[in-house]
């Protein structure tokens, strides 16, 4: 047996060694499903399967890159290079590029991101004269997205009385027309949206048997990670491609299916056995990721779900510390607690920032966390916010590039036709749109033909439009010889984008210039990297495709050491030694919008299972007593999910602000017990150790966990927020007495201050040990 296979246990090795035929691995979190896929690919290659014949579909492109790296370690880098690995969207975008002409698209089609799609829908709604409060563009977008993911084309929509009726009932009788308009406009713009990448792939494989045969023969071995979260459209693609050879290996965990709201269909995993002949089923039971406490607590949670496959998950790891639960007064306190706890843990256990993650149910919760982390100088990175490529200045540059590649791209054109300002106003653009619709041409073509059509614009505007067109055309000429990086640099300079930002001169303006620089650097790396790959050339079109499909998880190179902040949805598949799950409150988690049916609650519970099982060593659950929701301060109630965890796995941190014990019942800020606020039937706070005075041992633990005493505001300031210290600040040191800060250097843990002490002279002290008191 090959050496590397020793890195698997027997249960994991079995699916790796089954080279042919359909197989499914259903197993709980952390049991090595992703590891099995990785080793399986290496094994296939060792068995002589050409890397060219293997297709591996992952949940993020980052996951694909990591897998590829590990495979390269086993089989060698040159062998691993040609593996096709990535998300459904990125893999099938590549295939669609090759085959685009069959579907009537240019091979340089644009990929509209969510923002582009929503903007287009918004303008369609406006052009149709519909009420934008009834036809909310975001809702319309997600509706259209769900049609597409269920393979309901415009034609199918109009043939489906139920759908038409449903939209009419929802007071949106013209949904179908919007859908139609939207689809036509995308097509005319030579653009596919995210959902099209799957829908059109299905169309391609259905309509063209020779294309299907080609890819069936190519992808003889198919592997899919996180199979429980595939939607109908993805399911059909996998089914079609694997139909001939049936060498299909899927891994997943029904308990981690968390994307039903986006059309993921858990039946795909449940029915796998029926879809193929002679399916071998494998189970993995040993969790390698987490402590016993975490694994067993997570089991006790998921046990509450009725709809589930029976699974065993156990671990040989240590019991580890209990899950720590803390109640805070407000989200500000919650943020401060998390930040100080990270700070403490980092010091006590010699950890890096990258070993911590803060997970939340909704993006809005990140703000309080960020504020607190910033105050403590703890570097962090937020995932899932506005991705780098969606920042305004970056999208502006990219829109120029998109237009150069595909002049029909309407959203790109509208974005930059008057940016930087060149005297082409909104009315002119509206006229162009009308003309484009009228002649059934793109806006760019209308501009090219201004002399031949009768558009009521003055001659000055006409010249400006023609200048704009000529500029784009000159870039197109450059594009024929220069690589993507050279072209982008020219665009940034010649369009006046950089000058515009330089003129700005504000710190934000400077940050934007830096972002553009970062984009250009990224492009240079891309061009160099791609040229090494067999089937890539480093063209601008390839770069734009990568960008359109990049998530900010992909941007993470892992180079810098930061605390990770993200929604639980995004955390799927990842692992961190320390995990803080914040906002554990009813209406927030479980979400108030997902409490109507058992199925919805069960999905929320699976989400909690995913969250908890990201933790390797220590998990924290925090909740607040009151929280701002929709602009109002409301009483919060602890999440039912805390209640559902078996008590033996939990330990409560008393949210008292001094070391002195205070009973943890609902004491309002004035110190009075307001019984009406005790909304819990069985008050969570009434459990040991909360109802009783903590033992000496518990108190000792509390002291360890509470980073600072709150007794004196000034000490707290000095100890907590050393970011507040500036040269000139008067401070007091236990041994050296009073002194004045001369200068500060270093960051975070290494921050030092040079202080002139009245008694001790000038000294340089490490702030984290100095325990200075601000005077
Ligand atoms: P999830 O359900 O969260 O996606 P998973 O089942 O895909 O989890 P992996 O991520 O593959 O699990 O594995 C979890 C962790 O355990 C990883 O750090 C992995 O390297 C480690 N691991 C898995 N199997 C073994 C093994 N046999 N020996 C050592 N480490 C292992
Ligand atoms: Mg995994």
From TrEMBL:
<feature type="binding site">
    <location>
        <begin position="27"/>
        <end position="34"/>
    </location>
    <ligand>
        <name>ATP</name>
    </ligand>
</feature>
<keyword id="KW-0540">Nuclease</keyword>
<dbReference type="InterPro" id="IPR014017">
    <property type="entry name" value="DNA_helicase_UvrD-like_C"/>
</dbReference>
<keyword id="KW-0347">Helicase</keyword>
<feature type="domain" description="UvrD-like helicase ATP-binding">
    <location>
        <begin position="6"/>
        <end position="291"/>
    </location>
</feature>
<keyword id="KW-0238">DNA-binding</keyword>
<feature type="domain" description="UvrD-like helicase C-terminal">
    <location>
        <begin position="292"/>
        <end position="573"/>
    </location>
</feature>
<dbReference type="Pfam" id="PF00580">
    <property type="entry name" value="UvrD-helicase"/>
</dbReference>
<keyword id="KW-0067">ATP-binding</keyword>
<keyword id="KW-0269">Exonuclease</keyword>
<dbReference type="GO" id="GO:0004527">
    <property type="term" value="F:exonuclease activity"/>
</dbReference>
<dbReference type="InterPro" id="IPR000212">
    <property type="entry name" value="DNA_helicase_UvrD/REP"/>
</dbReference>
<comment type="similarity">
    <text>Belongs to the helicase family. UvrD subfamily.</text>
</comment>
<dbReference type="InterPro" id="IPR013986">
    <property type="entry name" value="DExx_box_DNA_helicase_dom_sf"/>
</dbReference>
<dbReference type="Pfam" id="PF21196">
    <property type="entry name" value="PcrA_UvrD_tudor"/>
</dbReference>
<protein>
    <recommendedName>
        <fullName>DNA 3'-5' helicase</fullName>
        <ecNumber>5.6.2.4</ecNumber>
    </recommendedName>
</protein>
<keyword id="KW-0413">Isomerase</keyword>
<dbReference type="Pfam" id="PF13361">
    <property type="entry name" value="UvrD_C"/>
</dbReference>
<keyword id="KW-0378">Hydrolase</keyword>
<dbReference type="InterPro" id="IPR014016">
    <property type="entry name" value="UvrD-like_ATP-bd"/>
</dbReference>
<keyword id="KW-0547">Nucleotide-binding</keyword>
<dbReference type="InterPro" id="IPR027417">
    <property type="entry name" value="P-loop_NTPase"/>
</dbReference>
């Amino acid at each position: 047996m090959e050496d590397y296979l020793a890195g698997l246990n027997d249960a994991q090795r079995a699916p790796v060694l089954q080279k042919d035929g359909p197989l499914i691995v259903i197993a709980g979190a952390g049991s090595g499903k992703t590891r099995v896929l990785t080793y399986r690919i290496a094994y296939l290659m060792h068995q002589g399967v050409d890397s060219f014949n293997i297709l591996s579909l992952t949940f993020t492109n980052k996951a694909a890159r990591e897998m590829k790296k590990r495979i390269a370690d086993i089989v060698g880098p040159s062998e691993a290079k040609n593996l096709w690995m990535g998300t459904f969207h990125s893999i099938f975008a590549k295939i669609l590029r090759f085959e685009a002409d069959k579907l009537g698209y240019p091979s340089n089609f644009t990929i509209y991101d969510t923002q582009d799609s929503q903007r287009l829908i918004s303008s369609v709604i406006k052009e149709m004269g519909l009420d934008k409060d009834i036809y909310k563009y975001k809702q319309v977008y997600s509706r259209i997205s769900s049609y597409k993911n269920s393979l309901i084309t415009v034609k199918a929509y109009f043939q489906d009385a139920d759908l038409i009726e449903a939209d009419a009932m929802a007071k949106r009788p013209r949904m179908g027309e919007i859908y139609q308009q939207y689809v036509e406009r995308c097509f005319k713009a030579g653009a596919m949206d995210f959902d099209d990448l799957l829908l059109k792939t299905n169309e391609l494989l259905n309509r063209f048997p020779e294309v299907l045969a080609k890819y069936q023969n190519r992808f003889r071995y198919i592997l899919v990670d996180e199979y429980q979260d595939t939607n109908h459209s993805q399911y059909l693609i996998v089914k079609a491609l694997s139909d001939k050879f049936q060498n299909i290996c899927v891994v997943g965990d029904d308990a981690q299916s968390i994307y039903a709201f986006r059309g993921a269909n858990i039946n795909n995993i449940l029915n796998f056995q029926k879809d193929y002949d002679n399916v071998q089923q494998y189970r993995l039971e040993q969790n390698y990721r987490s402590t016993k406490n975490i694994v067993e607590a997570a089991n006790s949670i998921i046990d509450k779900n009725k709809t589930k496959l029976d699974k065993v998950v156990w671990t040989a790891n240590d019991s580890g510390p209990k899950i720590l639960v803390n109640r805070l007064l407000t989200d500000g306190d919650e943020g401060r607690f998390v930040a100080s706890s990270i700070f403490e843990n980092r010091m006590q256990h010699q950890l890096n920032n990258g070993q911590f993650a803060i997970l939340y149910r909704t993006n809005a919760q990140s703000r309080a966390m960020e504020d607190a982390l910033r105050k403590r100088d703890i570097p962090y990175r937020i995932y899932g916010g506005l991705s780098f490529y969606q920042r305004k200045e970056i999208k502006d540059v990219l829109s120029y590039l998109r237009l150069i590649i595909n002049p029909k791209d309407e959203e790109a054109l509208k974005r930059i036709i008057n940016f930087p300002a060149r005297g082409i106003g909104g009315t002119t653009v509206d006229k162009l749109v009308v003309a484009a619709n009228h002649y059934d041409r793109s806006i760019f073509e209308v501009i090219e033909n201004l002399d031949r059509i009768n558009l009521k614009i003055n001659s000055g505007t006409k010249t400006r439009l023609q200048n704009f067109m000529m500029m784009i055309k000159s870039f197109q000429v450059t594009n024929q010889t220069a690589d993507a990086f050279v072209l982008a640099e020219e665009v940034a300079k010649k369009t006046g984008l950089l000058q515009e930002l330089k003129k700005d001169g504000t710190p934000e303006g400077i940050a934007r210039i830096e972002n553009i620089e970062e984009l250009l650097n990224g492009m240079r790396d891309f061009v160099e990297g791609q040229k090494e790959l067999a089937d890539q050339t480093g063209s601008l079109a390839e770069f734009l495709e990568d960008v359109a499909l990049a998530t900010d998880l992909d941007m993470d190179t892992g180079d810098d050491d930061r605390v990770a902040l993200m929604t639980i949805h995004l955390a799927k598949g990842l692992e961190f030694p320390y995990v803080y799950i914040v906002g554990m409150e009813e209406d927030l988690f479980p979400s108030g919008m997902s409490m109507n049916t058992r199925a919805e609650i069960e999905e929320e519970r699976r989400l909690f299972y995913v969250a908890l099982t990201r933790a390797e060593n220590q998990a924290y659950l925090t909740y607040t007593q009151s929280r701002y929701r929709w602009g109002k301060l409301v009483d919060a109630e602890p999440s039912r999910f805390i209640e559902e965890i078996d008590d033996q796995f939990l330990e409560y941190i008393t949210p008292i602000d001094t070391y002195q014990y205070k009973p943890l019942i609902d004491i309002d800020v004035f110190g009075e017990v307001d019984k009406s606020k005790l909304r819990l039937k069985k008050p969570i706070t009434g459990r040991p150790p909360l109802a009783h005075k903590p033992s000496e041992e518990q108190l000792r633990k509390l002291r360890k966990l509470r980073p600072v005493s709150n007794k004196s505001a000034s000490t707290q300031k000095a100890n907590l927020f050393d970011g507040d210290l500036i040269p000139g600040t008067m401070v007091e040191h236990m041994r050296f007495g009073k002194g004045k800060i001369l200068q500060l250097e270093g960051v975070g843990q290494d921050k030092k201050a040079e202080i002139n002490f009245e008694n001790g002279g000038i000294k340089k002290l490490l702030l984290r040990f100095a325990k200075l008191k601000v005077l």
